[in-house]
Model the fold of this input.
Amino acid sequence: MTQYAKPLPQPTIDSAPFWEYCRQHELRMQKCADCGHVRYPPGVLCPKCLSESSNWEKLSGRGIVYSWIVFHQQYHPAFAADIPYPVAIVELDEGPHILTNIVQCPLDRIKIGMPVEVVFEDRSETASLPMFRPREQ
Done:
C-alpha cells in the first residue's frame, strides 16, 4: 500500500473500537444495553438514559443524505487536488448521523434524502475510512 499523505483518524479510548471495526469493513456503533439507543460518536454514557452499559452493534450501512456541502476552498494542503469535493452528514437507518464524504457520485447528483450505503476506503495498513455512495432504491 502506498503512503497516504492526508490526515488520518487518531483513535481515542472511546473511538478505538469504531475504527478497528472500520478497518475490518464493518460499520458498528455503540448501542445502549438498557434503552437500545444507537449512538455516535462513541462515549462512556448513553445520552438518552445515562447508562454505562453498551455493545458494539453491527449496522446496515444504509442511510440518507441529511445535509451536504461542497468544499471549494483548501483548508488543508493535502486536500488541494480533491477540490471541489462533497462533505455530507448521513442519517443512518438506525438513527445516528455521521460526517463523511459522498463518493462514486457526480456533485450535481447529490441531494438531500438521497439513499446511500457505506463503502470503506483503505488508507493505510491500520486505517479504513467509511464513505458513502448512492444506492439503488
Observations:
- The helical segments are 16-23.
- The chain has a mean pLDDT of 96.
- Residues 71 and 85 are 5 Å apart (CA to CA).
